Amino acid sequence: GQPVLPAFGRDQHGLDGVDLPFLGISGTADTTAPISEVKLGMSRLTGTRELIALSGVEHGFDLASTNDIFTWTLMFLDAEVRGNPTTKKQLSTMGSVAGGGDDSVVIF
Asked: 0.70 exceeded by the pTM?
């Protein structure tokens, strides 16, 4: 995740040509895979992409954000894998999930 060793290959080029739906969930306090590097990598994707920021969360699973993580994940999978048009529309208007930690959409 660091600029000198990006998670997605040199200069994030490992993502070139990837057009599959992609959901990223990142903590704003993550120093292992900084959200700025995730954003750079995800900007190379050509398919549906969504990046959710969990405010103040470091690298690893944050128990306080469990409901947020599961809600975003299940909504995304229902919309993109199952192709549910109702969920896809709902997901496109969501800015955050009620309850849990402070979450927000960074890329949609």
From this structure: yes
